[in-house]
Amino acid sequence: MSFSDFKLASELPAWKSLEQLHTKNSKFNVSEAFEKDPQRFEKYSKTFTNYDGSKILFDFSKNLVDDEILAQLIQLAKEAKVEKLRDEMFAGSKINSTEGRAVYHAALRNRSMKNMSVDGKNTAPEVDSVLQHMKEFSNQIRDGSWTGYTGKAISDVVNIGIGGSDLGPVMVTEALKAYSKPGLNVHYVSNIDGTHIAEILKPLNPETTLFLVASKTFTTAETTTNANTAKNWFLEKAKDTAHIAKHFAALSTNAEEVSKFGIDTKNMFGFESWVGGRYSVWSAIGLSVAIYIGFDNFESFLKGAEAVDAHFQETRLEDNIPALGGLLSVWYNNFLGAQTHLVAPFDQYLHRFPAYLQQLSMESNGKSVTRGNVFTNYQTGTVLFGEPATNAQHSFFQLVHQGTKLIPADFIMAAQSHNPIENNLHQRMLASNFFAQSEALMVGKSESEVKAEGTTGDLVPHKQFSGNRPTTSILAQKITPAALGALIVYYEHLTFIEGAIWNINSFDQWGVELGKVLAKKIGKELDNKDPVTTHDPSTKGLINQFKKWSL
Ligand code: F6P
């Protein structure tokens, strides 16, 4: 299939029908939809069963859709040939057209060892062999048999990476803290700001510290600079470069650059170019996670992910959970004018989940050129944001409840807490908020209700809530490695569906290049005190002021 075969989404017949449906349903009210259809919750909720039998309930019923709208959204997916693109992705085809690459992160969680080939070569044996290496290595770190240059066990692992080589591992490490081993700490350094690495290294002992340099390309400036700083810090005490082998490992696709840096390729955990950075937590990039939670738990994380892959591949669109999530997002973004999407985990362990999803969603779908190489004439990627609740309720939820913008929201919670302290009181209070927020956003509070409570005069409109604000509630049984794997892949495939409908390539990231190139050029200009004469007047003024104050 040629990529130029794909039409602009706005030219598809279902797109036009959806525009008409939106006009026809401009007064759609979800509370009234519940009154009309007593089965709405049952009909619009889907339960995902994981490989270990655990379940996650996705309640889509509080969204601003009815059967007719949903049917047209599914029709849109069919006309946009999303199933074909999905099947091509799982077949290892090079659907990342601008980089000429397959999009095959699903092959990293192929624990059932199916034949998953790229260019006629089955990826399963190689993926498994890297996983076995990760297993052996993580076991050695955890049981203390891998020792540093003075014979001491490793107490601190520092992952140095940025973007996908950081956000996934950090998020999963935080989310699965309950599975960690006491006495073994994992830290993450990403920012080029020297403060990040300086503060992480301050309390650490080079004799017991292991660095994982995580970079798909091994050319990312932030990561190579931080890794060199770490090497200098280590050698200041260890002196002999021969000791590096015990304290540095590389997670990368680029063996040549890894060797140049001075890391023995025996200590390199590889993956292939068909793994995009933001989809790489399942690869060797997840080594810090495997060390932190143990390999069995890491494997369970992969299996939970694999189970959603199977669901996504095998389930018809009407019941396909990530597909429904993606279609709802398109509905809000392109027909109801939403600009943003809120993800609020009611779970402190998931506090980095929104940050992780920001890269997944916005680096994937923040594009304005189609796979047919023309500019879109419609909106694409939403601005995704979020913070854990209940904290978020005391911060920006005011705007979500009473602001002028439509903000579709996902609320995520687990029924069972890892910390059921105070006889589970905290958990019950957390859950009461989880239920209350989506209910309040939907039902709102009318003028007559405000008045019935005794409010009069000027205050009445201030206390009104319009309601009819859409949410998807995601209720897991517990945040286990398998459940987390499944939740991440729900969002991966939701993002895939959005991009497939918008007819953009969700798998490249050309938009990050220009800034990188300019920073490199300006970096050289900061090597001396001479004022710069080029650049636009604002940038020139800023650089020259910086030079006066800093150099
Ligand atoms: O600058 C964006 C990006 O390319 C991301 O896509 C990627 O996750 C990140 O940089 C890090 O890249 P690498 O793993 O090659 O260092």
Draw up the topology in text.
Layout: H1 13-24, H2 30-36, H3 40-44, E1 45-49, E2 55-59, H4 67-79, H5 82-90, E3 117-118, E4 121-122, H6 124-143, E5 156-160, H7 167-175, E6 185-189, H8 194-201, E7 209-214, H9 221-238, H10 244-247, E8 248-252, H11 255-261, E9 268-270, H12 287-293, H13 295-314, H14 321-335, E10 340-345, H15 353-365, E11 383-385, H16 397-402, E12 409-416, H17 421-443, H18 447-452, H19 459-462, E13 471-478, H20 481-502, H21 513-525, H22 537-550
Parallel strand pairs: 5-6, 5-7, 7-8, 8-9, 10-11, 10-12, 12-13
Antiparallel strand pairs: 1-2, 2-13, 3-4
The structure holds 6-O-phosphono-beta-D-fructofuranose.
Number of strands: 13
Domains counted in the coordinates: how many?
A: 3
CATH class category of the largest domain: Alpha Beta
Task: Spell out the CATH superfamily of the largest domain.
Answer: Glucose-6-phosphate isomerase like protein, domain 1
Uncertain spans, ≥5 residues at pLDDT below 50? Answer: none
**Distance between the first and last residues' Cα:** 56 Å
Strand order of the largest sheet: 1-2-13-12-10-11
Q: Which ligands occur here? A: 6-O-phosphono-beta-D-fructofuranose
What is the subunit arrangement here?
Answer: single chain
The CATH topology of the largest domain turns out to be Rossmann fold
Enzyme class: isomerase
Catalytic activity: alpha-D-glucose 6-phosphate = beta-D-fructose 6-phosphate
Protein name: Glucose-6-phosphate isomerase
Pfam families: PGI (PF00342)
